[in-house]
Amino acid sequence: MGRPVAALLVLCFISVTARAAAFRVHGRLLADDATEGGAVVPIHWTQAMNYVANFTIGTPPQPASAVIDLAGELVWTQCKQCGRCFEQGTPLFDPTASNTYRAEPCGTPLCESIPSDVRNCSGNVCAYEASTNAGDTGGMVGTDTFAVGTAKASLAFGCVVASDIDGTMDGPSGIVGLGRTPWSLVTQTGVAAFSYCLAPHDAGKNSALFLGSSAKLAGGGKAASTPLVNISGNGNDLSNYYKVQLEGLKAGDAMIPLPPSGSTVLLDTFSPISFLVDGAYQAVKKAVTVAVGAPPMATPVEPFDLCFPKSGASGAAPDLVFTFRGGAAMTVPASNYLLDYKNGTVCLAMLSSARLNSTTELTLLGSLQQENIHFLFDLDKETLSFEPADCTKLS
User: Fold this and answer.
1) In the prediction, which pLDDT does 236 show?
2) Residue that is last in its domain, among 141, 166, 191
3) Considering only Cβ atoms within 10 Å of each terminal Cβ, which end of the chain, N or C, has fewer?
4) Cα separation of 347 and 327, whole Å?
5) Overall number of domains in the chain
């Protein structure tokens, strides 16, 4: 359930800005005229605790589905030539059956942008190996027409023919990455902004991803904004993440201690749970235990550290309030961090960032804690804005 933050795509070794031009020629958002350059992508929750989009690839179109990964480095799907692949809910994509598929030749700017130690050219077809958030994959670099929600675009993508992903991802055939890399859906479609609003996982309703001009907040004085930040050093290459600076955290009226310089927050939709710097996590864990008023289970349900029998919980857990740089405050109610998991147990859907084996004071904000909050990423202004919303009504 946790996400190995250190597992970064090898294609990102070269800077994003140096490679962006090579990818932008492939992708262009071709949305319906009615959206004026914007697009809406319905996404839904799966039992594997991911948000997933259904779409098509190729001409004629072939069905596919993929996990929406905010920090994902590229777009990829399994292909029919796959020799070692996980189970998926749709047929494997067959590039030979698409009139618009083009295998990327060796020697092109796109192929040459891949580091030589992970690039392989055989029969003048550009191939690659990469670590993704789901596991290691390898395949061919290709371009084809994607229809995602109301958007249609020609995208460069990974046509995966081998992976070490065990079992299944509960239906999806790959990942659609939105990260700060040239391979992501966001960069390839050239949008200046995007947003998403995640409906509660147990609501049985679609959520939505908005691209381009469709990415707007309702406003009404409820929106807050904070700058996106960058961090480097300490052996952490986190350039694919959207990051903000956490400067305050409260559980109800109690202040939760943070490092003197605050904590860099990685926004994430692949991991359903959050990771707090260890001191803050221990304080939140204690505050929740006192508020719930039930003895914690001696053996929590994996992978959680804190679980309670649902029948014994008598108290109300407090809201958590995250305050980011510039005073932007985001409220996370108890329903977003106490997960009604299984067998009558309620678990704290947060863990210590010590589990991430990072040398940097990091907080990771997972998808469960983002439910019913509309997030807007303005890539021109380099800001993150957000406001509370009923996400079931925005899809």
Assistant:
1) 60
2) 191
3) N
4) 30
5) 2
